[in-house]
Design brief:
Blueprint lengths: L2 E4 L5 E4 L4 E3 L2 E3 L2 E3 L2 E3 L20 H9 L9 H14 L9 E6 L5 H12 L4 E4 L3 H8 L6 E4 L10 H15 L2 E5 L5 E5 L4 E5 L7 H4 L2 E6 L13 H35 L5 H18 L7
Parallel strand pairs: 7-12, 7-13, 8-9, 9-12
Antiparallel strand pairs: 1-2, 2-3, 3-4, 5-6, 10-11
Helix pairs in contact: 1-2, 1-7, 2-8, 3-7, 7-8
């Protein structure tokens, strides 16, 4: 399906729908190296030329816009969310995907924030609300694109069962485990989800520890003063998204080493356990790859 994947040699392939980046070149959909890439509607394509690293690049532009919201942790949360956006672009090629849960009260600008993500990802994002696990299985199919689930609340009518099914799918998506489903006609079907998810709600639904450990919790507070027309460079955000995608595709060979460096620091200096280091390390490593060509310094 569409999105980023890792080939049998550890390299990166990227399927945009009407063409596939495989073996270092763009090719038409079809059979390549034993894998079938079907023709699909086009999603966002990477910027056509190499994007330079350093300050004032696309990552900093995205983070500067995200910092205009009233985050509980004003320096940390925008950086983590920008890192998630970059990680989500290559999620299918990774061993671990970190998920994000945003809590937001009325008047916090949540809807505008989700619209911003939509511009960054272009047509390569699935946004849904009041959804079910079955809908996500069927809608994603074989694609690996970022997913935004708005208002993932526990519904009193079903005792929260719908939200729990969605959370179960997200747990599987973190590590890329396969999900088996039986049909009424006796045919077993297998589904593998490797998408990265952002969920939002006023209150986080009840979760087991193994589920909660897969989310970075970011908190949005209300704006002190409402604005009728937020000053967001919407047109520029699509360009920023394509430039970030190009940097993530070019920087993929450096991702694993950056991840190990951040995980080591999170454990030794931050006091995180292995799961916490994996979770936040994925966001920080993706942010670093998006911003810099050099390896992380101590």
């Amino acid at each position: 399906g569409r999105g980023a994947w890792r080939d049998d040699r550890g390299g990166l392939t990227y399927h945009v729908g009407d063409r596939v980046f495989v073996d270092g070149a763009w090719k038409t959909p079809g059979r390549h190296d034993g894998w079938v890439y079907p023709t699909r509607p086009r999603i966002a394509t990477p910027w056509p030329t190499r994007v330079e690293d350093g300050r004032h690049g696309p990552f900093e532009q995205l983070k500067d816009v995200l910092e205009t919201w009233t985050w509980r942790r004003r320096e940390v949360d925008p950086h983590l969310l920008a890192g998630w956006a970059c990680m989500a672009m290559i999620a299918g090629a990774l061993d671990w995907r970190a998920m994000v849960f945003i809590t937001a009260e009325k008047g916090s600008g949540k809807s505008t924030l989700l619209n911003l993500l939509k511009f960054v990802f272009g047509r390569g994002m699935l946004k849904t609300g009041n959804t079910t696990g079955a809908y996500l299985y069927q809608k994603l199919g074989h694609d690996c694109i970022p997913v935004v689930i708005d208002e993932l609340e526990a519904q009193p009518s079903n005792g929260g069962a719908s939200a729990q099914k969605v959370i179960e799918l997200i747990r599987m998506a973190s590590s890329g485990d396969k999900v088996g489903r039986g049909s009424s006609d006796g045919v077993a079907k297998e589904f593998e989800c490797r998408s990265a998810f952002v969920c939002t709600s006023i209150n986080i639904p009840a979760m087991r520890g193994q589920d909660q450990s897969r989310f970075a919790i970011l908190n949005l507070d209300q704006f002190e003063k409402a604005e009728a027309d937020p000053n967001i460079p919407w047109d520029a955000m699509e360009k920023v998204g394509r430039q970030l995608l190009r940097r993530m595709l070019d920087g993929f060979p450096r991702y694993q080493q950056a991840l190990v460096t951040f995980k080591d620091a999170l454990i030794k200096q931050g006091g995180h356990d292995a799961r916490g280091a994996e979770q936040f390390g994925a966001l920080l490593a993706a942010a670093h790859i998006a911003e810099f060509d050099a390896a992380p310094t101590p």
